[in-house]
Every structure is written in C-alpha cells, then in structure tokens.
C-alpha cells in the first residue's frame, strides 16, 4: 500500500507525536552523536508537511519532559493550530493536589484540548513505582477528571502496568508503543504473555507507534515489525488500537510517510471498518477528540 492510498482514507488521526524547542524545554535524552536526526527543534511548521503528505487531519501531541511549563505551552500551540486536536500533558502524580493542577491546566489557554496525562515511567528507577499509593492516587485523579492516562513503560514493566490497570478500572489507559517489545533482540514470549495480560483489562487501549526504533541495530524491515503488530491485533483487536507516528523520534529509523505506508501494508488484511478504527476512530473515542 502506498502512502497515497493510505492518505485517501479520510481523517487519519495521529495519536502520538512530540514538539519541542530546546531553548525553552531542553531534551537531555537526545545524544547529538548517536541521534543527529532529531538533534534539532521540532515545531508545527516542520510537522505540517509530513502530516499533509500522509493524509493526517488531526493529531495528539504528547509531552516529552517532566516539567510543569511544557504542558501549558503545548496547550497554547494547540489553541493556534487546528491540526492538533489533543494534548497529553504532564503533572506531578505524587502531588497532593493533582486535581487542582489539572483544573488549572484546563483553565489555561487551549485547556479544552487537554485529553490525557503521561509520566515517563520507563525512566523511573523504582520497579514498584506504579504500585505506590501516592502515584496511584494521582492517576486516579487523572481518571476522575475525565482524562486518559498514557502508559510509557518498557516491556519489563508490563506486569506492574497490568496490576495498575486492574486496580483502577475507572481510568482509561493508553499503552504507548505496545510496551516497547524487544524486536530483533530477544524472544518475544515474555512480552507477548505480559501484553496479553494487560489487554485482558477492558479499560486499556494501545498505540501502534514507536516500533521502528525498538528494532536492534537501527535497521529494520516490515517482517521485523509484523510479529508485534499481529500480536497486538490478536490481544486488543482493531477497536482498541490506534495509529501513532512517534514523530520526530521515528526519524531515528524512518520517515513519517514510510511508517504510514508500512503500517498500511501490515493492516491490509483487515476489513475497511477495522482499519478505520486504527487510523482514526479509536483515538477519537478514547481521547474524546472534537470532530475535525
């Protein structure tokens, strides 16, 4: 399937991309020697041609650093750009007043586009982070505010994520990047088992995103990605999966349009309705996006 064929399907929603200007929000995780492709600033100006070429009509921008000032800035950008339908921001989940902090964000310019919250759990050294009462209290407050919670975890953290999801059935959870399967590096058996356990909880959905940068060695083929996508389809089903570009991080391994094309090939065996769920309907429903 060509990018043009995918683009002719109306209303693609990119449920996962980032924006940053490093003078305002440094990205210390970017190594300029090993990551030159993203050693730069990325704004809506750079995003627009990529989304336009891929037929994307709405996006969800996702936080990238755990600082209070980033989310209001992303909300302001979304207020000025009709392409950006939603913002997944950040709050300190361990704060005693998470509910008040969320209310302040919603009162900010563009606050109506706040659709979720994310924390960089993958970087937490404490293996019991998601079991902590203070963290769970904060995540429960996110759910009570009507927002989704994005789970950014590595594959070894999936059991902890499953415990969290099971214990907080009132919260809508979105798993980023399928929990980062170890593609090309190890047997996928443990990841497959743990993803199935997470997907058994009905309050979870997942993003088909961030897979190209999980393949060992930096080079990849469609065949490298197929086991992860097929397993996700098996355990979640199309109506609980959504497309995400992970731009600009995806540029470490591919272009925006190439990822759209490859995912289109992987989804080709599905029905039109099943593909429509992944390309737009799941994200619109879970993040409660306003129609474009």
What is the topological layout?
Layout lengths: L2 H5 L4 E6 L26 H11 L1 E7 L7 H11 L3 E6 L8 H10 L6 E6 L13 H12 L3 E4 L6 H10 L5 E3 L13 H11 L4 E5 L13 H15 L4 E3 L12 H12 L4 H15 L6
Helix pairs in contact: 6-7, 7-8
Keywords: Hydrolase
Organism: Micromonospora arida
Pfam families: Amidohydro_2
Summarize, please.
It comes from Micromonospora arida. The model has no long low-confidence stretch (mean pLDDT about 95).
How would you describe the overall organization of this protein?
It is a single chain. Helix 6 packs parallel to helix 7 and helix 7 packs parallel to helix 8. The radius of gyration is 18 Å and the shape is globular. It has one domain (12-287): Metal-dependent hydrolases (TIM Barrel, Alpha-Beta Barrel). An 8-stranded parallel β-sheet has the order 1-2-3-4-5-6-7-8. Strand 5 (148-151), helix 6 and strand 6 (173-175) form a beta-alpha-beta unit. It is an alpha/beta fold and 292 residues long. The protein has helices at 3-7, 44-54, 70-80, 98-107, 133-144, 158-167, 189-199, 222-236, 256-267, 272-286; strands spanning 12-17, 56-62, 84-89, 114-119, 148-151, 173-175, 204-208, 241-243. The protein is built from 10 helices and 8 strands. The model has no long low-confidence stretch (mean pLDDT 95). The longest helix has 15 residues, at 222-236. InterPro entries: Amidohydro-rel, Metal_Hydrolase, Metallo-dep_Lactonases. One of its GO terms (molecular function) is hydrolase activity. Keywords: Hydrolase. This is Amidohydrolase. Pfam families: Amidohydro_2.
